[in-house]
## 1
Amino acid sequence: MAFQIPRIHFYEIDDQAWFPSFLREKVQACLTLVWIKRFPPFQSSSPATLIVKTLQSLLGPSIKDYTFIDFCSGAGGPTAEFERDINKALELESIENYHDQTRKSTNTTRRKDANYSKGALPTSNSDNDNDNNTSVDFILTDIHPHIPSWRLACSHSPHLHYIPHPIDASAAPPDLLSQIHSSSSSSSPSPSIPHRKPFRLFSLAFHHFSDPLARAVLKDTLLTSSGFAIFELQSRNLESLFTVLLLGPLLWG
């Protein structure tokens, strides 16, 4: 049984209102690198890749039923990677399904042509109607919005959006999805996205919360969302503590 360090809520300087915003952005940018980069030989893949596989495994085909809202996004964290990899997989799945349906339709047409030559009337095949809207949307939010990084990330995908003003994860507005922006090319809210069930993401966020705040965030999440996932990069053990201490020199060096 692994030894677990009791939870101690340390004072995080970059969480404080007086902390300079340009330094906070630097910290957030460094954390994004931790998510998307792989550090061999310690990691076989990046943490973002592992989370994509976890979401795909747990949600299965129902992953298309959700809009993913990332709270406490920082500089973007792994969310852009989530959006790219998940939608790429959905696109490949859609193409494969289309080819399967095309092959079935071709076989059906051949049989109908054979029947028609015997006097049977051809009928239309409506089974080829495909839903092309297979991509899912991801939304970045934070109580300290990192607009420049978000705009840049969103400019690479029509399915990645952001909320430009502070969002409190313990009291998210009910009209959150109507406030999204997409890219640097537009200063006005984006067109509405498909109506799907909200799924909250917390990526390297929950350790920032005190116990009372964490309970408030979970309560609001349960009241307003159809699902949620909490991901952290560290555990409460000595090995993880040592790894976290090494991140400073690695990222700031």
## 2
Amino acid sequence: MTSAPTILLIPGAFHVSSAMDVFGAELEKAGLEYRSMGLATVNHAGLTVQDDVQALLTELLNPLIIKDGKDIVLYLHSYAGIPASAAIAGLSKQERSAKGENGGAIGLIFQSAFCPTPGDTLLEMIGGNYAPWQSRDIATGLLQVIDPKQTFYADVKEPLATQAAGQIYGQSIDSFNSASGPVYYGIAEYKDRRVYIHTSDDQALPPLAQEMFVANSGVEWDVRRIDGSHSPFLSEPASLAALVVGIVGGFVATYE
């Protein structure tokens, strides 16, 4: 048996934790506890993927799993898939249980997310060139989004779309150019506990790229599809929460 897990909502590049507030409220209505965290490389030049890995461990994973012994599910949006794939090393529930330790990650949900292989950089994974919707500012060391509302929130209703676009910040250029370390989403402990949610009308990360990430990962995924943009946590939070509740229930059932 496993306890009701805490859902960790990790938005991708350019986003801060408040991007997940509306979605998190829907999860709470469904009876699930959540925590959210923006990544360290957002609005901080010079930081790398490894800084994001360390921040995830220090601020979320170690306190919740190691200190508090909680079961968790990671919901990883876009770039968050890269640092989280390394940060989960040794933290699956099965690995910890085998050592007599409580808590751990019971499952992974990648939403329109990067699935790195060891040594990948984000820039390599998008073909070696910055996206047309990005502007690189060498002086500040940050990438900027030219039109965040169109790129991330094309199907989000007003005034929420404008509000959300106003909370998009620069992203460390070094996070695009730094290599991922070892990755752990593919270990046996996550078999049947690994879901990929595709977004079919994604303006930021085209569906073909998402398909390639899954295909190149070398492991099986439970694939789900949403007819929406890069940010269903804002465009359709209630239906996304219902989907996630079902997925989490499936994860829990694998431990019974």
## 3
Amino acid sequence: MLGEFTCPHCFHHWHSGKIATQIWLGVPTDKKNTTNRYRTLINCQRCQGCERYAELDINKANYARKVVSAIILWKGLRKKIDPGDGNITTGPHDSERCRGCEKGVCEFSQR
């Protein structure tokens, strides 16, 4: 995922092209046992200046493209694409400040 983080405490601002995101497909609803739903969890990052978690402004077009791509793959309408499919990155991944790395769910983890 792509996005921009801003620390609400010290106002440090940075861009990230490596935001740990989890997508669950086929999530049942409470009212029906249907599985035509999805759920996402976008993991935050800690600020380099004060080590507190920052607020994310996600790139909505990139988010929509990634979710649609995952749904199409899940439905069996295409095969998995090589990870080097033109993903935009903004430098090395800061595993020490990534919440996804802390939880052990980040695909970019360098720990």
